[in-house]
Amino acid sequence: MNKRLLVVSLALICSSVVGAQTQSDQSSDRSEPKIKVKDARIIVKDKSKPVRKAIEDWYARNIEAFNAKDVDAIMALRTDDFHTMTPDRKVNTRADMEARTRSLVGRIDHFISQDFRIGDIEVQGDLASADISQKTIRMQRLADGTLHKVEARAVQRETWKKTADGWKLYTVDNIRDGGVFVDDKPYNR
């Protein structure tokens, strides 16, 4: 009985996917969905990767906002309940992170580069998470006011929430593999 229900469900999903594709056959840039059965669950994967594309677009806007040193634009890309968790389990609220961002961009003269690599994206309902490898190089003033080349890198899990205004950053945690270099030398705070 369960197998018969599974087969009927799979057939319905396949026919709705095929029907949807026939309507959009003129659009050649769409990939065919991948359908598989795993542990008696039907999994339909959209190979056009709309979530990845949305997050890549989010990063383009985030980089642009940081280059412009526009804290309001940076924070507009984050949810109202945005928060981070440091490796020592300290939670930073949205207000904490806004103050920290204002302080950071106030010390940055300009960015040399900002590089973000998005790992595999896991989507669960209105949340999407991925490990992000990031590396930024910038000319930044240190506490003594002197200008230095600062390179910062880390790997961290970032989670975005789908909102009425699109995907926004919801939380950052599992921060690891970080390092800061000042004038190409390891920096210990």
Outline the structure in words:
There is one protein chain. The N terminus is likely disordered. This protein is about 30% helix and about 45% strand. Strands 3, 4, 5, 6, 7, 8, 9 and 10 form an 8-stranded mixed β-sheet that branches. The N and C termini lie far apart (about 65 Å). The longest helix has 22 residues. The chain folds into 2 domains: about 45 residues, no CATH class; about 140 residues, Nuclear Transport Factor 2, Chain: A. A hairpin with a 2-residue loop joins strand 9 and strand 10. With about 190 residues, the chain is α+β, with helices and mostly antiparallel strands.
Characteristic key phrases:
single chain, alpha+beta, Nuclear Transport Factor 2, Chain: A, 2 domains, two-stranded antiparallel sheet, 4 helices, elongated, disordered N terminus
CATH-scheme architecture of the largest domain: Roll
* CATH fold category name of the largest domain: Nuclear Transport Factor 2, Chain: A
Amount of beta strand: 35-45%
- Count of strand segments: 10
Overall geometry: elongated
Give the overall average pLDDT.
85
Query: C-alpha Rg, in Å?
Result: 21 Å
The structure class reads alpha+beta
List low-pLDDT spans. 1-30
Question: Helix segment count?
Answer: 4
Write the SSE topology:
Blueprint: H1 2-23, E1 34-38, E2 41-45, H2 50-67, H3 71-76, E3 78-85, E4 91-92, H4 94-107, E5 108-118, E6 122-124, E7 127-141, E8 147-163, E9 166-182, E10 185-186
Short description:
The chain has 189 residues and is α+β, with helices and mostly antiparallel strands. It has helices at 2-23, 50-67, 71-76, 94-107, and strands spanning 34-38, 41-45, 78-85, 91-92, 108-118, 122-124, 127-141, 147-163, 166-182, 185-186.
